[in-house]
Amino acid sequence: MDCEEIAQCPVFVDEADSAGYADDATWILTASFVILTMQSGFGLLEIGSITSGNEVNVMLKNVVDVLYGSLAFYFLGYGIAYGRPSNPFMGLGDFLPDGSDDTTQSGLQYSKYLFQLSFAATSTTIVSGAVAMRLKFTIYCVFSFFAVIAYAFVAHWFWAIDGWLHQLGVHDFAGGGPVHLLGGLNALVGIIMVGPRKGRFDANRPASDFAEGSPTSMLFGLFMLWWGWIGFNCGSSFGISGTRWVVATRAGVSTINSSAAGGVTSIAYSKWNSNGKYLRPRDIVNGILGSLVASTPSCACVHTYVALVIGVVGSLVACLINDVVTLKKLKLDDPVGAVGVHAGAAVWGLLAVGLFADSALPGITVRDGLFYGGGFTQLGVQGLAIVVVAAWSAGLVLPFFWICGVLFGGTCRNPRKGLRYDFVDGGDQLTDVHLHNCLEDPTGKLLSELDLVLHQETSLRRARGDDNRRRTRRTRGGSGDPIDDTEVWDAASDDTSIREASPRDNETGIEQSHPPSNSGVAIQEGSLSPEFATETRERYKHGHFQLFRSTRRISS
Fold this sequence. Notes:
It contains 20 helices and 2 strands. With about 550 residues, it is mainly alpha-helical. α6 (about 135-160) runs antiparallel to α8 (about 175-195) and α10 crosses α12 (about 305-330).
C-alpha cells in the first residue's frame, strides 16, 4: 500500500485533521523500532549456535546488515519496491526518498520507509548465521548491500498495488515470501557455495567441535525474536485507524497461538528425537521460530484456532528439514538452521493461506482458501509465488556468490576458495582472533601454562622409568563409587594417552589427537584433553581453584 492509497482510505478522508495520520504513523514507527531490535535477537541466536571463537565476527556481520542494508534501501531499494511511477516488475521513482511539499504525504512516506527498511534488514541477516565461520567478511559486506536490492524486487511483486503477483491475488500479510522465504533460500545458496566447515562431514574432527557454543545465548535470542515477531506481524496492519486495529489484534493472537502450539510440538519432537532422554535447546528454538515464520503470511486472514494447526506443522517442518534433509541427507552445514526455519516454514505458511484463508474476517481482503470453499485458486497463486521466489534466489544469488568467489579467489575453477577464510592456524575456527584481534578466551594463557606443565611432567616420568604404572580407580563393592584416586601410568605404547575410557579419567587424560576448538590456544603432543581443557576454563572463570589440585594429582 503506497502513500496515495493510504491517503484515499475512508478513515483519512473523513478526518478533519491529521489525528488519523498521526496515530497510524505512531503505530508504524513503534513497530519499526521493535522489528529492528530483532537484530539483537538474531545476533544472540547466531553466537549461541556457532562454536566459540567466532562471536565477534558474527555480530559484526549483523552490524553491517544494518549499515549497508540501510544505504542500499535508501539509494535503490525503496524506489524499486514502492517508487512511483512503477510497472508490474519494479518501481521507477522515489529513489533517495526525501518526502514532498505536502507535510502529510512526507510523514506517511517516512513512516513507511522505516517500516519497510526493517523488513529488508531482517531478510538479509538470515544469511549471516548460515554461513558463519566460512564466508569472508568483505564478501558478506557486499552481499548485505546486494541482498537488499534482490529483496526490493520481490517486495514490489508482492505488495505494490501494481506488482504482478499482487494483481494475481497473492496474500502475504507480514513477509513470509519476500523476507523469510527469500532469506532462507539465499542462505541455502550461500551454504552450498561456501561449503561446510572443515571436518564437519568427513570424520576428521570430533562432533564436539561443532556443538553449539552457548545454548543460553540461543534461548535469549529466541525470546527477543519471539516478542519482536509480534511487532513484525501486528505492525503489518500499517496502522490502527478504521478496522486496522482489529486486524492487528487478531494477528497478534494468531501469532502467539501459533508459537505456543509450535513450541509444545518442538518439546515432543526433541524427546522423540533423543529417545526420551533430552530436551535439546536447538530443537526448541527451531520449532518455535518455525511456527512463527509459518504464521507470518497468514496471521491476519485465518481464525485464531487455525493458527494452532499452522504452528504445529510449521514447527515440525523446521525441525525435520534441519535434522533430516539438510544435515543427514544433503550434508549441508547450517549452524543456525536457517533453511528449515525460514525457507521450509515459509513455504508452509504461504500454502496455509491457500488452505485456511477466510474472506469473511473483518479488515482483510483475500480469497477463501480450499477448506473454506474457495477451491484451488488461492492455493495455486500461493504456490506460484513460492516457485517465483525460489527461481529469483537461484538466478540472482547463485551467480553473485560465484562471481565473488572468482574475483576473490583468482580462478573460476574453484570459486569456493575465494569465498572462504583460509587461516594457516586454526582452520576455519577462531575468526575473532585472526580478523578482529580479539582474544577468544582470557584463560588461554592459563591453559598454555598448564599444557606446558603436563608435557614436562610426562617427559620426566619417562626419564625416571615411572611410566609402567597404570592409572586405576578402586571401587567399593560393585557400585562403581570411587574410594581412591591412585594414578597408575601405562607406557606399553609410545603415546601419552590415558587408557581408561571413563568420563572421570578423560577429565585428566592426555591426548594427542584433536585440540579443543574452544581453547583459543594451539595444543601440541601430550596436551590437555578437550574435556579437561573445557573444564579448566569453566572452573577458572568461576573461581574454582580445585583445578590446581586436579593438576597436582597428575604430577604427584
